[in-house]
Each structure stands twice: as C-alpha cells, then as structure tokens.
Amino acid sequence: MTAETIDTIDALMARYAAGTLPYPAHVLVQSHLEIASANRDLVAGLEELAAGALEAVEPQPMPDRARRLSSIFASAPSTDAIRRPSTSIFPTVLRDFVGFDADDVPWRTKMPGFREYDMDVDGCHASLFWIKPGRKIPAHTHDGQELTLVLDGAFTDIFGRYGRGDISVANEAVDHRPIAEKERPCIGFAITDAPLRFTGPLTQRLSDILGA
After folding, report:
1. What is the pLDDT of residues 30-71, one digit of tens each?
2. What angle (nearest 5°) sits at the alpha carbon of residue 92, between those of residues 87 and 96?
3. CA distances from 143 to 5, 21, 23, 46, 158 (A)
4. CATH code for the part of the protein at 1-212
5. Cα(54)–Cα(153) distance, integer angstroms
6. Residue 59 to residues 48, 55, 56, 62, 159: CA-CA distances in angstroms?
7. CB-side exposure of 127: number of CA atoms within 13 Å?
8. Would the pTM count as exceeding 0.85?
9. DSSP one-letter code for 199
C-alpha cells in the first residue's frame, strides 16, 4: 500500500498528509476525517508542516499550465454534490468514490450474514461490507495491510471496539476475529493490498464461515 508498513493511526495520518497513499486509502482517511474529529488537528498540523517545507523549495515552471488548471477545475465537486443529505451514513467523498449512497449498494452475499461490494483500484482491493448483528468474521491474518473504516454499527476484536468513524489498522502481525455488535448491522469500508489468510482451528473456521 506504501513503501513503508502502516502500523498505527498516526503513521496512516502522516501518509495521508504527505499524499503518498493509494487513492482508495486516501478516500478512506478523508471519510474518517469527515465523520470524526479525533485526528483533524493532527492532520492539519502535518499539512501545515508540509506547506512550510514546500515554501522552501525553488519554484519550477509548470508545463502545459492552462490545460492542467482546466483539468483541476473540471474535477472539482459541484455544489449539488456538496449539498447532499447529512443523514446518510456515507461521507461525501465515499459516495463520490463508489458512485452511490448506502441505500443503493449492489450487495453480494459472500457468506451467510456477510455481504460485500468490492472493486480493485490503484493496486488495492477496496470493498464495502455489511455484517449481520452478532456475526463472527472468521479469524484471519494478512499477507499485506488492511485498513477498515466503520460507517455504521460497530465490531470488536482483540484490540477493542470500533464504532462509526473508527479505523482499524492491521498487517502481517495481526491475527483477529472481528465480531459485529448485536444491536445493529456493522457497515464499513475496507482497503487491502494482499489476500487475507484464515487461521484458527478448522472447526471454528467452518462454523464462522457458515455463520453458525
């Protein structure tokens, strides 16, 4: 996902501020910042430091300046896109990325009690997921990195509870078994750059896959 392993939220925010994340991961962090306030000051501070560093760089001529500026202005979101209902669980940047809102996701059932909509973008596997209340996701580890943003509901694993706006960061060192809370479905957005590997006893894996 990046040249260096992301193992903490602070490292993820630093990569976001530096502009070195793949686009789906950038969308995930921007969505987090739109939903939750916890890391906004951190990112603002990092961006201010980056801006100061840029000011010290000798300006360089921009080839084809007019065409590039036209492209930037053409890609700016319209006012209609900005004025969407605030009651949606999807942040604006995520709706723009996937092209639809939460009520319109074309879910596909991958396991009993687990639905997903997935896509491959910029070298990453990006997916929206829906987990039935109380559903256990099979224990797994990661051959690469996994970033998960909770959009609604919550899940718990060995590291604690993740609710709306929280990000879970996992890599090869993490082996966990997320469990959706019983009150409501857990809906989220996840980014991986390598396949997951199921772990744990075979009987537990089969039980979790079948949703028993």
Report:
1. 999 999 998 999 999 998 886 655 555 566 676 777 776 676
2. 130
3. 12, 18, 20, 29, 19
4. 2.60.120.10
5. 40
6. 18, 9, 9, 9, 46
7. 19
8. no
9. -
